[in-house]
Amino acid sequence: MIKSYNKLLEGNRKWATDQVANDPDFFKRMILVQKPDYLWIGCSDSRVPAESVTGATPGEIFVHRNIANLVVHTDLNLLSVLEFAVKVLKVRHIILCGHYGCGGVKSSLENISYGYVDNWLRNIKEIYVRHAEELDHITDLEAKVDRLVEINVIEQVKNLCKTKIVQKALDEKVLQVHGWVYNMQNGRIKDLNDIDDPLQDVHPIFKYERN
Ligand code: CO
Q1: Are 63 and 5 found together in one domain?
Q2: Among residues 26, 38, 112, 135, which one has the fewest Cβ atoms lying within 10 Å of its Cβ?
Q3: Strand order in the sheet with 38-43
Q4: How far is ligand 1, taken at its centre, from the CA of residue 30, in Å?
């Protein structure tokens, strides 16, 4: 049996050799403390790797990925990553990046049960219902998925802004939050809402007192 994973180990050996050939100090720098400027929250989809699609190198982006790039307030994994990135690493930007044609978003429009992930995708169904007036009018399925992908990114940016961690950093003007969508058909990223004050779209009930 051909061990297909050997391709990855061979790729790793070649990559490590090439890095040193191009930049002899590359790994010496890597063992120093990491100081990334960006936290990337993206989809687990194998076609949207944060570093590759942005041309970034190791050490530049702190990454969290899950199915359909959701910010769920009971997700201890995401909350831990978020707090560590903002408070300890002191990232300057959080990039919430979705992608057109997202399988997770598409599945949320269906009535098929896939198992545990049903509970995860229910978060997107809730978003659909809140935006049903707009989405119900889109008859083409692909167009509907892509619009829901954009709305989902905006809603997840809002979810980030509902956390005390992000609100405090925004108040102190040490952090910016961005909503992006990656297009798999041409490799381009669209910046959805590069706004100075993403908190303005969050209902006041979510805003914590400053301290
Ligand atoms: Co996806």
Answers
A1: no
A2: 112
A3: 61-66, 38-43, 93-99, 176-182, 189-191
A4: 30
Domain residue limits at 166: 35-199
Q: Can you say how many angstroms the Cα of residue 165 is from the centroid of all Cα atoms in its chain?
A: 17
SS3 of 79, please? helix
Q: Are residues 82 and 116 in the same domain?
A: yes
Q: How far apart are CA 15 and CA 151, in angstroms?
A: 38
For 15-24, 169-178, 199-208, which range has the lowest pLDDT when averaged over its residues?
A: 199-208
- Cα of 125 vs centre of ligand 1, distance in Å, is 15
| Residue labelled with tokens 């990491």 | 34
Structurally, the chain folds into a number of domains equal to: 2
Looking at the fold, whether 116 and 57 belong to one and the same domain comes out as: yes
Q: Are both 126 and 46 inside the same structural domain? A: yes
Tell whether 175 and 74 lie within a shared domain. yes
Q: Which residues are catalytic?
A: 43, 45, 47, 99, 102
Lowest mean pLDDT among 25-34, 165-174, 180-189: 25-34
What's the 103 CA to ligand 1 centre distance in angstroms?
A: 5
Separation of 134 CA from ligand 1 center, angstroms?
Answer: 22
pTM of the predicted model as reported, rounded to 2 decimal places: 0.94
Distance (angstroms) between ligand 1 centre and the Cα of 210 equals 35
